[in-house]
Amino acid sequence: MKLNIMVTASGSAIAQGIMKSLRISDLDSNLVTTDTQPYAAGLYRGKSGYIVPKAKDENFIDEIIKICNKENIDCIFIGTDYELLKFAENKERIEKETESNTKVIVSSPEKIRIADDKWLTYKFFAENNLPHIPSVLSEDYEELINKEEFPFIIKPRIGDSSKDIFIVKNRKELEENLDYVLNKKPDNKYLSESPGFMIQKYLKDESQEFTSTTFSFENKCYGVLSMNREMKYPGHTTKAIIKNFPEIDDYIQKVAGIFNALGPANFQSRIMNGKPYVFEINCRFSGTTPFCAQVGFNTVEAAVKRIVLNQDINDLTHRNGVMLRYFNEVFIPQKNVDEIIKNKFVENPDSKINKVF
């Protein structure tokens, strides 16, 4: 059965990782991609590419439904955080108003909000009696100072890569940086106002940072792949050691079962006093999704088989090794770029990737 699969925000690393995972899988599929602007590499790497409005626009879902009906889309993968909640809130509508009952691979709005808002993430761990990093809202910083020793980390409740994050070593640095972030205009074009800030005990050992990928469906976690990682660019893992980390894997398996995402989730943690503490949840496919697929832990393939095709799947396993990320290029003929700028659509683009390395 040949599937028609949509991947949104195809200029993002997340979307491109989903696309790579589909290529690696044994699924037979046509790829349809979207983005909000014409210079997104993924627009030119499938059967067709579409320019769509931003998720905050009123007609975003209308345009998605039109494309789904035109292309007979079987399922949608979401390539950016900024579209997650909109798709989650309109999941039933999309499935009802599309001729092929397009499946949207997304968790519930409640799960998306918990993962998006780092204060709600902290409360999730505290309320479920799971290990949690001492944290307060920005206005309650005296409470944290009275209980914990510096350093602390100031972070926005809803973040964008590593923007407006500060590690502070004393009260003076804390108050100066808080004054700055609380009084500056947010530079995130997707947010209309500042979502607020929180302060958290900073876990200093960066060498003990892990990112763990899970796949869950109906209260069952089908496996955990944890990587000890290094980040050179904001939000992007450049080196990952993939092997079995029993203490971390067992803990994340427990957390994933309680959180109960639909399909993919990613948990980022650091070690404190010999225990893993999760400081961030991504309720979506992550930037390391293609790393996972390359070593046999293909969560994109699992999502299609379990959620779209209603097939039983086995627990996911993986090979061990080291993944190193590097840059690559894709060439797009000018005629394809001109076509998508003019028509908001391109079909069978003639792009070429650089296969030399």
Using brief descriptors, characterize the structure shown.
single chain; 357 residues; alpha+beta; Rossmann fold; Dna Ligase, domain 1; D-amino Acid Aminotransferase, Chain A, domain 1; 3 domains; 6-stranded mixed sheet; 6-stranded antiparallel sheet; 27% strand
| Rg over CA atoms | 21 Å
CATH topology of the largest domain: Rossmann fold
Task: Please name the CATH architecture of the largest domain.
Answer: 3-Layer(aba) Sandwich
The total beta strand count reads 18
Describe the structure.
There is one protein chain. This protein has 357 residues and is an alpha+beta fold. The protein has three domains: 3-105 and 328-353, Rossmann fold, CATH 3.40.50.20; 134-201, Dna Ligase, domain 1 (2-Layer Sandwich), CATH 3.30.1490.20; 206-324, ATP-grasp fold, B domain (D-amino Acid Aminotransferase, Chain A, domain 1, 2-Layer Sandwich). Helix content is 33%, strand content 27%. It is built from twelve helices and 18 strands. It has helices at 13-24, 60-71, 81-89, 91-97, 109-116, 118-127, 141-147, 171-183, 246-259, 289-294, 299-308, 334-343; strands at 3-7, 29-35, 48-51, 75-77, 103-104, 135-137, 152-156, 166-168, 197-201, 209-217, 220-233, 236-242, 263-272, 275-282, 321-324, 330-331, 345-347, 352-353. Strands 5-4-1-2-3-17 form a six-stranded mixed sheet, with helices on both faces. The chain has a six-stranded antiparallel sheet with strand order 14-13-10-11-12-15. Strand 13 and strand 14 form a beta hairpin. The radius of gyration is 21 Å and the shape is globular. The mean pLDDT is 94.
